[in-house]
Design brief:
Blueprint: E1 2-3, E2 6-13, H1 19-27, E3 30-36, E4 46-51, H2 52-59, E5 69-73, E6 76-87, E7 94-101, E8 107-117, H3 121-124, E9 128-131, E10 135-141, E11 150-153, E12 162-164, E13 175-176, E14 183-188, H4 192-233
Parallel strand pairs: 2-5, 3-7, 8-11
Antiparallel strand pairs: 1-2, 2-4, 3-4, 5-6, 6-7, 8-10, 9-14, 10-13, 12-14
Length: 234
């Protein structure tokens, strides 16, 4: 699976295609895959497959979906990345995987995770940091993919502060393809105080209503007693 610091993925060609054939492959321990390569034409790709156990081991490596891989196919090793994973949303089973071959120095487009750095001042003051955008689409050379994704330093953020795409600092050869105004993270104000005030107001209102009802009942009882005394005196 690994050779030195490189992660090797062993692929085999396949002729089978279609839903029934794919199900059969998965029952036999294989995951259907395709390899988009430099020889691909008109969007066509090479039909390949990978052992399920091997793929699951590889996917346990942190950040592997945006790391360069050594794709081994029929004795030839190519550089590539995992471009897409299709999973069963209920059982988390892998249904299909797309590999994308890249050449050294080639600029590629891929999605990178957003990594939070530091603790916002606003959080220490009672606010909550909300990560609005989990991933960003970037373009960069194949050999310069940021290992840790896109880092966002939030340590200076106060309550109400917002970080947008345009605020991010990335390496010179990395281009973020998203709208500069897109919100990445925001520190929202505490809500607990407002909820407590509402609860207190509701409790006070309830107590006042109960007090009024009790007062009415006492007045009624008093009037009844006075009326009874008057009738006895007569």
């Amino acid at each position: 699976m690994s050779k030195g610091n490189n992660v090797v993925v062993n692929l085999e060609r396949r002729e089978e295609k279609g839903k029934e054939k794919s199900r059969k492959m998965r029952r036999e321990g294989w995951i259907p895959a395709v390899l988009y390569s430099r020889d691909s034409r008109d969007g066509k790709a090479e039909l390949v497959k990978v052992r399920e156990k091997e793929l699951k081991r590889i996917l346990q490596i942190p950040g592997i979906t945006h790391h360069m891989l050594d794709l081994s196919l029929e004795g030839e090793t190519r550089k590539g990345i995992i471009r897409d994973l299709q999973k069963n949303p209920i059982k988390e089973e892998i249904w299909h995987v797309d590999f994308y071959e890249v050449q050294t120095g080639q600029r590629i487009t891929l999605s990178l995770p957003v990594r939070i750095k530091g603790e916002a001042r606003g959080v220490e003051a009672g606010g909550t940091l909300e990560l609005v955008t989990q991933e960003l689409e970037v373009e960069c050379p194949s050999g310069a993919i940021p290992d840790e994704g896109i880092e966002v330093d939030v340590s200076e953020l106060e309550i109400g502060d917002v970080v947008r795409v345009g605020d991010l600092k990335v390496p010179q050869d990395v281009t973020i393809m998203e709208d500069p105004d897109e919100v990445i993270a925001v520190v929202i104000p505490p809500r607990v105080v407002e909820e407590e005030v509402e609860v207190e107001e509701e409790v006070e209102a309830g107590v006042e209503e109960e007090t009024e009802e009790e007062a009415k009942e006492e007045v009624g009882e008093s009037q009844t007693t006075e009326k009874g005394k008057t009738e006895e005196e007569k």
